[in-house]
Specification:
The protein has a single domain, classed as Alpha-Beta Barrel (TIM Barrel), CATH 3.20.20. It contains 17 helices and nine strands. It has helices at residues 6-11, 32-41, 44-48, 51-64, 78-82, 103-108, 110-116, 118-130, 144-153, 160-168, 170-194, 211-231, 249-255, 269-277, 288-293, 296-309, 328-339, and strands at 69-71, 87-90, 94-97, 136-142, 198-203, 238-242, 260-262, 281-283, 314-315.
Amino acid sequence: MSDRPRLLRALSGETLDRPPVWFMRQAGRSLPEYHELRAKAGDFIAFCFNPEMAAEATLQPMRRFPMDAAVVFADILLLPGALGQKVWFEAGEGPRLGPLPEIAALKGEVEASTGRLAAVGETLSRVRAELEPERALIGFAGGPWTVATYMIEGRSSDRSAARTFAYQHPEKLDALLEVLVDATARYLIMQAKAGAQVLQIFESWAEQLAEDVFERIVVGPHAAIIEKVRAAGVTAPFIGFPRGAGALVEEYAKGVPAEGVGLDTQASAAIGRRLQAQGKTIQGALDNLLLRAGGPALDARVDQLLAQWGDGPYIFNLGHGVMPDTPIEHIARVVGRVTGTRVKVAA
């Protein structure tokens, strides 16, 4: 039992002496050694597809902080590229995507898409070989709706055009989501076979959706992905994270057979406790802006989260990803506070 990762124990429903801790986007962004590596890599997508470099980016925060889990360095938009849509990243501006291909063309690329993402599997295998047995390895994919918003709009935005598309072209959106469910399930099966012990679905843009739409384009696709992965014999636990879902996260928890449910910054103490009482392990919901700001308010919020959810299965994490300009000492302070250790900040 001592070598069984704390994250897996929490996701099996155990209440531990302290929760496991990891941060979304901990692989890179805020670390100077990451930026050195990123400068050598050149193109961001090439970086993600370089298993040696991606494994190094995954392991860097694990060397600095006593995190209980590593999350593979990759990007949710590798999947549209593998399906045949042009994807690139503009320096300082973020992702760009070419025109949305015809659904039939995308569907015809689903089977081949997994092989085109094999480098991510190699990254996972490399990391698992180096990571201590008591520290878990997390694989992930973007939620179908979130990935679809980028595929439809061609860039990061307020997603209003994608939401309008959902109303004006429901059949076409459903067909696109069906393709993404199939491709995502295959991708996650590959990740689990390569060494991922936990699988997270990042539905980054689940906010501002009416209840019926949320049920159709978030809950349904997530449930379908997990069912397909389970049908392939994969037993790795899932964490589903519908960021921005608000009170609808409870409907999500009822409809999606994920062992863990990610909570964002706005989640109340009561919602988290209700989900725990229903047999779900909860994860989150420290504000990433508060992590960046630091100070007594950060300490107080960490203590509050530990107190309000620590009596049930809980994973300490953020309500969103680490921001690039987050001071390393703030991360070290929080991780130390959660783990009960003193974390020294290396130069």
